[in-house]
Amino acid sequence: MPSEFDIIRQYFMLENSRDDVSVGIGDDAAVLSVPAGYQLVQSMDTLVAGVHFPLETSAGDIAYKSLAVNLSDMAAMGATPAWFTLAITLPDDDSEWLQSFSKSLAALAQKYNLQLVGGDTTHGPLCISICINGFIPTGTALLRKNANVKDKVYVSGTIGDAALALVAWQGQYLLRNDTTYYLNKKLNRPEPQVELGLLLRDYASACIDISDGLAADLGHILQESKLGATIYFEKIPLSNEFKLNVIDDNLAIPLVLSGGDDYQLCFTVRAEKQSVFEKIVNEKNIKVECIGEIESVKGLRCLLDNVEIDIHEAGYQHFSSD
Ligand code: ADP
Ligand code: MG
Q1: What homologous superfamily is domain 144-308 in, according to CATH?
Q2: Which CATH superfamily is domain 4-137 in?
Q3: pTM of the prediction?
Q4: Residue of the nearest CA to atom 11 in ligand 1?
Q5: What is the SS3 assignment for 140?
Q6: What is the pLDDT of residues 187-233, one digit of tens each?
Q7: Which of 34, 66, 84, 184 could make a disulfide contact with 128, Cβ separation 3.0–4.6 Å?
């Protein structure tokens, strides 16, 4: 059986690229430099096997998602990702599993010039905990609490795909064969919206990433900003693959409003910045959609054909995700 340090050396000493890492893996702690004029932004997310992903999920998908959900938190703050640490609890020393995990983790880290600078390796039921660090120019972090009345509410990408893939995986829904690959990819390999997050530093008043469902996560912005909003269900962007599978609004509503795991951004933009913002995202080919507006009356209202949907009713009773 390889020692803990053999595992670290073989699978977690990934290629190093950053010159702001004075000491990385191998000492008692990492030594890192934050550039002058910037603040450190830090976040942590844990994924437990059987709770946050099905037990049979591939090692590559687990590694990808563990890091992607953390990158998504950086995106939601408007931060540039820089370093991360990895606490991993492993049930055994399966070298094939570790090899795939390490390869997938390294590929996503490299894509974002993100360096693994330390961690902890223990034995027990599979659990992956990542702490990520990034930078923002001092005072520019995108917070949940800064939405204003009349701001436009936006979402990026498409909503509901991951939730649909999850209920299909759970056997509650049969997908069309030609959409399975696309939808499973949305669940297992969500694309963190880092580029959009950086752009939003200049345009958004408030921002959050959608991990628990659009209604719940937009609800956090509203609660923190002490405001309300009306959104229009027809305006929420859905993928063709979603629409091909889900024809009935009664199924679409809970998946879109309450299904989690999309890791798109939900954010607000001041009305006077709207046209410039839309021009820039178009030029950059980033997909965003305005779905409603912030109001002074507290609470979230969602209209479909001008009739208010009972969001609570549409919610967690049907499809809950952890
Ligand atoms: P210590 O006993 O001082 O905590 P460890 O043996 O746990 O040291 O770790 C040795 C080095 O390996 C440290 O630099 C630690 O940050 C790093 N490390 C341990 N596990 C991981 C991991 N899963 N990924 C990345 N680095 C790790
Ligand atoms: Mg240790």
Answers
A1: PurM-like C-terminal domain (3.90.650.10)
A2: PurM-like, N-terminal domain (3.30.1330.10)
A3: 0.95
A4: 26
A5: coil
A6: 999 999 999 999 999 999 999 999 999 999 999 999 999 999 999 99
A7: 66
